[in-house]
Design goal:
The complex is a heterodimer of chains A (382) and B (461). In chain A, 75% of the residues lie in helices and 1% in strands. Chain A folds into 2 domains: 81 residues, no CATH class; 207 residues, MetI-like (MetI-like fold). Chain A is built from 14 helices and 2 strands. Chain A is globular and about 80 Å long. In chain A, strands 1-2 form a two-stranded antiparallel ribbon. By secondary structure, chain A is mainly alpha-helical. In chain A, a hairpin with a 2-residue loop joins strand 1 and strand 2. Chain B is α/β, with parallel strands linked by helices. Chain B has 2 domains: 240 residues, Periplasmic binding protein-like II (D-Maltodextrin-Binding Protein, domain 2, 3-Layer(aba) Sandwich); 140 residues, D-Maltodextrin-Binding Protein, domain 2, CATH 3.40.190.10. Chain B is 41% helix and 18% strand. A 5-stranded mixed beta sheet of chain B has the order 2-1-3-13-4, sandwiched between helices. In chain B, strands 10-7-11-6-12 form a 5-stranded mixed beta sheet, with helices on both faces. A two-stranded antiparallel ribbon of chain B has the order 5-16. In chain B, strand 17 and strand 18 form a beta hairpin. The chains are: A mainly alpha (382), B alpha/beta (461). Chains A and B meet through helix 13 of A and strand 2 and helix 9 of B.
Chain lengths: 382, 461
């Protein structure tokens, strides 16, 4: 464990100031305590690898619970549990209380700002709505089958293509669309950014050539890109039977344009900060360019590449909502836009449901990337 | 010779009769052969999209073998562009949109319509501040109730006051070629307020204007008014009633008072689409006619249900009580000042769904009046343009099929008219409009371009 911490410190911190993986200090202390306590036991079942995994995916609070159950140093475990679970829960409770008290005092033209209860009710309403819509879809297909059967009875050669359900996308569908859009955008960004970053890292001249462009485009908002992307996509993407809806492509490309930069910058940093000794060794061995890249450059810059990717996905998810609003891509952004336009007494509560959904999904995406990042960082790559 | 001629005529009429019989029997026996079954139709969150929602919810689309998805759009420009690029098969459109795009004002494209979606349904709302300033000039009856229609003359002192204190008086409408723009302009001009000219080099529409008009998408109107960016707006429902519920403004005049039974929205498709999918187009019109009939059936008995349908989030999404206010034959002018206005929304009565050439010509006269059509045109040009855009033949064909299928009554449709409404003087200023003589009408109007006048460099020449 100590070793790992040292290793992490040796990694140069990324340009964008990404917070490195939170290594929970108390749990380390507790681990030390457990380690000293374990030799007394007869058969020490080693759960450390499992705890490390839990730590990695952000469920570190499970470890003290398990330890508590096994009767290991209860005092330290309770303290750990309080730190990892108790304090966050209390904070959430305080937040909910403050929210419900304050929101009741703000009067908008759409009524009061909804409190936690109203938002929770709307979450239920959206779910009920989703289920009702699924039932309607089932009825729709049933009607179609019946009609097709009638058609076939009349004329065996009749065209009975099954038509897709024509109803509205539900909230769950919209979350799905948003995720698909952000992943397409993120993939495009990755495919472009990683090679560019590697080139920048390997060649100082290439880097100084590209740097001004990166610096200028990096702070540009998605709203500025969107009209241009819309025009370009409309002009270039002309098919009679489109595989993707234009609004989907426009949103995805806008996402990639905004999420390119952290990956490029971090990859550049990762590649350029490879140990010079290693590069010298490569020179001495007269490694081919390709071998050098695969055996040396990529493995040693992976942690920072993933730091960049994690930041990119975060930016992409943030940008997505705005671009969906404007491009009318039927995801969470459009949901918020439509609800704002509806202006009904439930609209604000529904928008808040979307706010929390966006937050929670963003958090989960970040966790996933963090897990991957720590996997490639602490492995036996070198 | 004569004999041969009669012979020919007889054969011709025989052939015609045969063809007619054939179409009739086809209409009764087998349904239309639909070229494109899966369709995407766009709409704007306004109560007059309701024929689309009803046709969907009541299964009229499916009865015709159409699988239609309805999708709300951000604004009128988006809707027109997406219909032109083919992303949408058709859409809920402003009556002026197909006309303007066909003559090339704004985006140039051939857009046609065979179905007029409704009559009336708009109103003009002013902010609370303006309403307070208007109070001393309003006429009241014996009981102290404000007399309607409120003329724009009562707004004039307020605009003058704004002007003298150096503040611009700003109002919003929803699109440069929208019915709201022309209605608001008509109302303002009838009260001596100049709403401004368009010219080929300046399409802001604010040349020589007393009241500065600009574009805001319908659902954002109340919020924009509340923010103080504008002093009033002209828009369809529920956004005027919404202003009352939110307490941000007061509706002063409805469009039915400006021009009784004026055409409002149409169902627009591109000409290419209509040519490529004639049967699909017919089926669409059939379903929409049935929806319109349902909406006006039994003296509006179904309106409450309709309001319920469109208050759902996927359609208009505003609260039911707001939508029901205007949909069910009443209109709330001020908080608590609810008055009966049975014709505020007309979906089928008065031949509301038939695409009259004279309606298209009226919009053209207003485009000319305010300089969107920069040069004088002959009467014939007005009629030719109207005939390019409005397709009453398709409408009547669809109506005939419904009559044959016993889904509608023959007397409900204006079979045999030449496409022009009778001349009417039911305007707020009482000026008679005859669609057959557009130029004579333009010359009768007070403020506006007349004859061969042009707007050049900010001046009328």
């Amino acid at each position: 464990m100590n070793n790992i911490v040292v290793m992490k410190k040796s990694i140069p911190s990324p340009a964008d100031g990404a917070p490195s993986a939170p290594s929970s200090q108390p749990s380390t202390a507790a681990n030390a305590a457990t380690l000293s306590a374990t030799p007394a036991k007869k058969k020490p079942l080693n759960l450390e690898p499992m705890f490390n995994v839990l730590n990695m995916i952000g469920l570190s609070f499970i470890a003290p619970i398990v330890r508590l159950c096994r009767g290991e140093n209860p005092r330290a475990q309770v303290k750990d549990l309080w730190q990892l679970l108790g304090i966050p829960l209390v904070a959430i409770a305080v937040f909910l209380f403050a929210w419900s008290r304050m929101s009741a005092n703000i009067e908008t033209s759409l009524g009061k700002i909804p409190g936690p209860v109203a938002v929770w009710n709307q979450t239920g309403a959206l779910w009920a709505d989703h289920k009702a819509e699924r039932e309607k879809a089932a009825a729709f297909y049933e009607r179609q089958e019946k009609r097709a059967a009638e058609k076939l009875a009349e004329d065996p050669n009749a065209d009975v293509t099954v038509r897709k359900y024509t109803g509205k996308p539900t909230y769950v569908d919209q979350i799905g669309t948003s995720l698909k859009t952000v992943f397409l955008g993120f993939m495009i960004a990755t495919i472009v950014a990683v090679p560019l970053g590697i080139l920048c890292g390997l060649s100082t001249s290439f880097n100084s050539a590209l740097n001004p462009i990166i610096q200028v485009f990096k702070p540009v908002s998605p709203l500025a890109w969107l009209p241009i992307v819309t025009m370009v996509v409309s002009a270039l993407y002309v098919t009679t039977d489109p595989m993707f809806a234009k609004s989907f492509l426009i949103s995805a490309i806008t996402v990639s344009l905004c999420s390119l930069w952290p990956t490029i910058i971090n990859t550049t940093l990762g590649v350029s900060s490879i140990d010079k000794d290693l590069l010298n060794v490569a020179k001495v061995l007269q490694l081919k360019w390709h071998t050098k890249l695969v055996k040396l450059v990529l493995p040693s810059s992976l942690p920072l590449i993933f730091t960049g990717l994690r930041l990119s996905l975060g930016v992409g998810w943030m940008v997505l909502i705005a671009s969906e609003m404007l491009a009318q891509n039927p995801g969470l952004g459009k949901f918020i836009w439509d609800e704002f336009q509806n202006g009904s007494s439930e609209s604000l509560a529904r928008i808040l449901v979307a706010v929390f959904t966006i937050g929670i999904i963003g958090f989960l995406l970040d966790r996933i990337m963090l897990t991957i990042q720590s996997l490639v960082s602490f492995g036996d790559k070198r | 010779m004569i004999e041969i001629r009669t012979g020919r005529r007889a054969t011709a009429s025989l052939l015609l009769a045969g063809a007619l019989c054939a179409t009739l029997s086809i209409g009764q026996a087998a349904p239309l052969k639909i070229e494109k079954e899966q369709l995407k139709i766009g709409f704007i969150k306004l109560t007059d999209m309701v024929p689309l929602a009803v046709a969907y919810e009541k299964g009229y689309f499916e009865d015709e073998g159409l699988y239609v998805t309805l999708e709300p759009q951000a604004n009128w420009k988006v809707i027109l562009d997406r219909v032109i690029t083919g992303e949408l098969d058709g859409a809920h459109m402003l009556a002026g949109q197909p006309i303007a795009s066909t003559i090339g004002f704004g985006t140039k494209a051939e857009v046609v319509t065979a179905f007029s979606m409704d009559l009336n349904g708009n109103a003009t709302t002013v902010s609370n501040e303006v309403w307070t300033l208007m109070q001393p000039h309003l006429k009241k009856d014996a009981t102290g109730k404000i007399e309607h229609p409120i003329k724009a003359e009562t707004l004039k002192p307020v605009v003058d006051k704004f002007k003298s204190s150096g503040k611009p008086f700003k109002m919003a409408m929803v699109f440069p070629v929208s019915t709201h723009n022309y209605e608001l302009r008509y109302w303002l001009a009838s009260g001596g307020l100049h709403p401004g000219f368009y010219s080929p080099s300046d399409v802001s529409g604010q040349i020589k204007a007393d009241v500065l008009l600009s574009v805001t998408p319908p659902p954002q109107m109340p919020a924009t008014l509340e923010a103080g960016t504008i002093n009033g707006y002209s828009v369809g429902e529920p956004w005027n009633q919404q202003a009352i519920f939110k307490g941000v403004g007061v509706p002063v005049i409805t469009d039915i008072e400006i021009w009784k039974n004026n055409p409002e929205k149409v169902f627009g498709v591109t000409k290419a689409w209509a040519d490529k999918y004639p049967n699909t187009h017919l089926a669409m019109v059939k379903a929409l006619i049935r929806a319109a009939m349902w909406l006006d059936a039994n003296n509006g008995a179904n309106r409450k249900e309709a309001a319920q349908i469109i208050s759902r989030a996927e359609y208009v999404g505003a609260d039911y009580r707001v939508i029901a206010n205007s949909m069910t034959g009443t209109f709330e002018y001020g908080k608590g000042d609810k008055r009966a206005l049975p014709d505020f929304n007309v979906f089928f009565r008065y031949n509301a769904t038939y695409p009259f050439y004279s309606d298209a010509v009226w919009y053209l006269t207003q485009m000319r009046r305010w300089g969107q059509i920069p040069e004088a045109k002959a009467d014939q040009w007005y009629h030719d343009t109207a005939k390019k855009v409005y397709l009453p033949d398709v409408y009547l064909k669809a109506a005939q099929m419904l009559v044959d299928e016993k889904k509608a009554k023959k007397e409900d449709f204006p079979f045999g008219v030449d496409g022009f409404r009778a001349p009417t003087a039911e305007f707020i200023d009482g000026i008679e409009y005859d669609g057959r003589k557009p130029n004579a009408y333009i010359d009768k109007l007070t403020i506006g371009l007349k004859g061969a006048q042009k707007v050049e460099g900010g001046n009328v020449k």
